[in-house]
Each structure stands twice: as C-alpha cells, then as structure tokens.
Amino acid sequence: MTSKRLISIDDFIEKLRSFEQSLITRDCVLDFCSSIQITDSSLDPYVFFDDKFYTRNLIYRDDLVEVMTICWQPGQKTAVHTHNGQLCWMITQRGSLGVVDYKWIGCDHPEYQNVVGLDCVAGSEHTKLEVIREIEAGAGGPVLTADKLQTIHRLYNLSDRKERAISIHVYSRPIDSCVAFDMENQRCYRRQLAYFSKYGEAAPKDDASVTAAPFVQIT
Length: 219
Prior knowledge:
The protein is mainly beta. 11% of the residues lie in helices and 39% in strands.
C-alpha cells in the first residue's frame, strides 16, 4: 500500500487553488485527496464541537472552491440532503462516519428540477427516494464523493462508537443552500446553509447567519 504524504491544511488549499487554472473535475481532486493526509495540528484552529449539533467550520472559500471541517459528537447526523448539483469530496480525518446514498425515484413536482443555478426548487409533498448503498468511512480510508449523478445522501457519526469524528469537505462550487428531505412525511424543502465558525473564529451565538446543524432539524 502506498503511504500518504503528510501536508498542512494550508498546503492542501494551495494545491486545490492550482486546479482552478484549468477544469476542476471529480477525478483530479479525488486523486489528490487520496494521496495525502492532512496534519491534525494544522486543523486544530478549525475544530469546534457542540453538544447539540454537528458543526460546519469554514477554512477557505473563493468563487470555485469551499473547504470546511465538520465536527461530530457521537450519534450526530444530517438529514438526507442534496449538494445543489455541485461536486463534493469528503476526507474522514478522525473517527468513523456512516454514509447512506439515495436515488431519487420521483415526486409530484418533477418540473421543479428544470431551473437554472439550482438542482431543484424543492417543495414537493410526495417525494420518493431509494437507498442505494451504506458505507462506513473511517479515518485513513477512501475519499468519498458526491457528483452530479450521485448527489443525495445522509452522513452520521456511527452511534455504536463513543468517539468524536472530524471530516474535511471540499465543494466546487461553494454551496449556500441545498434540498433537505423529510423522510417520514415524504416532503422536501430548500434549506439555507451557514457556518458555526469562520477562518478559525467561532461565530457569535446571536448572529442570525450562524447555523450549527443546517440539515438535522426537520419541522
């Protein structure tokens, strides 16, 4: 097995930025992410845990690339959600996450998908999804992706483990909203996303733009 090259998060971002000079493809970023291991010490400023919800912590963002850590207490999870048609890569830095991939089967408003700039307007009251596969993503394991064909999934810190987890997420382009699915009631809606911290600084609790868990609460 080929050993992975240790690099800092700053060097990781510098390499990602170099891809912006050409076409950013799923495979070119996947090959790079699979070849490296980011040092824990360089990530320390971007690690924030919350007892109630997992946290989204922005490390870097420009017009083409967004990089963040997501920090998970045991049992914390997202709702089923999309990635707005963007390309995404996930590296599990610490702990072990469960990933459930879904396939869209149909809904009562398929015309809502034919819009510019969004994967779907959302708002269906009768949405049907089908589980494709379930994966365990452990630290040091394969880099997982979401793309324009496989874009719906749920992530969670495995509940039978008593350890925290940290994952590193790369999006191209940045994602400001997504479609979230209420599986019990078979409906979906568009949800705005926000950060628990930005560039190593925890956001004020009274900041209306701060959301620790943008997917988990389905009401």
